[in-house]
Write a sequence for this structure.
């Protein structure tokens, strides 16, 4: 199989960190997002949505969506589990993963994609009809981010990792989100518990993947 | 345990359809969204995010996020599986669930929440600081919806159900999304394959849950 990967972007990094935590090695093909290779004909034949990552299996089937790719590998290599094993662990990890995505990751995407000139008419990631940027949505992203990061900071006062005592897929999701938000110019400082968590998550060898 | 549920809204319906498909019965408490009961002090003590559904366990722990609640029940009652059992089934179902959410459900939410007067300053669902509506985002939602529904229609030309030969969580997600989009005034007609799929999904007893 082959993993279509890209530098810098948060979703491919989510898969890389996951694979590093699992100790799974996969052949990788780098797609150059800055050269818009993900929107070129060759890559659109692999993933018509123009999104990275994508996992091409040996029979030619292509799995898209970073969470789906990680769950595929989780089913192939269940241990160590990053999605939980007991019902309550599974629920906590999924709940926090979803919360980080819908409240935090989306906020960072709003701030990023609606403000930089290079993404004019590409307000949503991937292959779409022209979608104009909306400056007010960048503003909304900043409001959402502030509320999200305050909530996460309070949560991390009570827990070592996002979904409890163990590092899980929810932490991977939060790490790529917080690092991406910082690049998008959002404030991730001034939150003591997040600083403690971020330091611990970033110190794991997988964070450099 | 107790499921905090609400009429009309798509996320609580996703859980209801899931439970009906599984044949699982749970005590329910109805929250009146039109009376803003989900943003009142009593409910915010249960779910500070002000979102429905929420599942309160007997020990007091509360699970939020509809997908997390469904995965909790899936772990308790694995058969019949709605999230897949083999790695490739799991990957297809998660990938399509995510695609329906990020391209279709979000489009419908953009169109709905940014246009109706009752949701002034509540541009994002749940408990947030005031978030102004953005009319341009309703327009973006309509553009995204059109592209999404065309893509889904093409996909359903080749498959009986969203993720293959069997009805899964991806179909539940798509059913609540398409029905919600129709209520938001988006066009779901003129797409032959979606009509065929929608009729089959809506004919299942679970659709009335």
């Amino acid at each position: 199989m082959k993993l279509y990967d890209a530098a810098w972007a948060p979703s491919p990094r989510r898969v890389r960190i996951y694979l590093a935590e699992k100790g799974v090695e996969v052949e990788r093909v780098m797609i150059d997002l800055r050269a818009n290779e993900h929107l070129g004909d060759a890559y659109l034949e692999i993933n018509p949505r123009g999104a990275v990552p994508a996992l091409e299996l040996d029979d030619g089937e292509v799995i898209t969506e970073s969470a789906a790719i990680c769950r595929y590998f989780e089913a192939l290599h269940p241990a160590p589990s990053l999605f939980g094993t007991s019902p309550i662990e599974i629920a906590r990890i999924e709940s926090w993963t979803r919360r980080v995505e819908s409240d935090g990751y989306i906020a960072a995407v709003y701030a990023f994609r609606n403000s930089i000139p290079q993404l004019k008419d590409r307000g949503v990631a991937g292959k779409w009809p022209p979608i104009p940027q909306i400056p007010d949505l960048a503003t909304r992203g900043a409001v959402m981010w502030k509320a999200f990061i305050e909530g996460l900071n309070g949560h991390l006062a009570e827990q070592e990792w996002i979904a409890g005592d163990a590092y899980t897929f929810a932490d991977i999701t939060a790490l790529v989100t917080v690092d991406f938000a910082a690049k998008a110019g959002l404030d991730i400082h001034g939150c003591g518990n997040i600083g403690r968590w971020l330091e611990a998550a970033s110190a794991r060898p997988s964070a450099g993947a």
Notes: Chain A touches chain B through 37 residues (CB under 8 Å).
